[in-house]
Amino acid sequence: MEEQIDWTTFLVPYHQAVDELKVKLRGMRKQYEIEKQYSPIELVTGRVKPIASILSKAARKGISLNQIDEQLQDIGGIRIVCQFVDDIYTIVKLLYARHDFEVIEEKDYLKEKKSSGYRSFHLIIRYPVATIHGEKFVIVEIQIRTLAMNFWAINEHSLNYKYSGEIPEQIQMRLQRAAEAAFQLDEEMAKIREEVQEAQWIFHKKK
Ligand code: 0O2
After folding, report:
1. Is 109 in the pocket of ligand 1 (CB under 6 A)?
2. Which atom of ligand 1 is nearest to the CA of 115?
3. Domain locations along the chain
4. Residue 122 CA to ligand 1 centre (angstroms)
5. Is 105 assigned a catalytic role?
6. How far is the CA of 188 from the centre of ligand 1 (A)?
7. RelA/SpoT domain: from which residue to which, for each copy (predicted)?
8. Which residues contact 72 (CB under 8 A, 6 or more apart)?
9. Number of other CB atoms surrounding residue 39 within 10 Å
């Protein structure tokens, strides 16, 4: 028999971790701005997975509820969005260099996209949260992707939700084409990166 979970208590450290990480990572962006440097981080968002999604993902993956804190790695989720593909690798390096958490796994869906067409770089981290009962480690997934990859992923995610994971073939085909177009967009932008950055810098100075 699986023990009942007190969800409010269980999710407290995840909320704490996500809130702290958002502040810290947005702080990195701010620091680039203050030092008048280009920031590889465009925006940072975060969420704690809703209970219904935790339950359905655990069921789908055959994970028992007393193991979800170890085996469901995206209960706490952070997303970092950047402008250029190279920024992703800069961010990954910056995150590995930090001492306030430990990277325990990386998933490079850039080198090898998922069959859906999904591209992103994921880092799974072990993050210490100070609780009134002492230090508690939680697993958090950090997704790092470009604006183009993000645009594709949020649309595909909505369609997946709409069709309960069974997207009609015709739409799947269009999504594959859209993923390829997003990839091409990232490639083209990478080629004129310096021009774009210079233009943004001039615009920023005028503000
Ligand atoms: P949500 O609603 O974003 O929380 P799996 O879902 O089994 O493929 P796994 O093994 O948990 O994934 O790890 P993975 O591949 O790192 O995926 C975790 C999360 O990455 C997903 O969480 C999505 O946010 C994102 N992701 C992975 N594959 C895709 C994809 O094909 N399309 C989109 N749009 N996002 C993807 P959840 O729980 O699926 O969803």
Report:
1. no
2. 31
3. 2-206
4. 10
5. no
6. 27
7. 46-167
8. 49, 54, 57, 58, 61, 63
9. 18
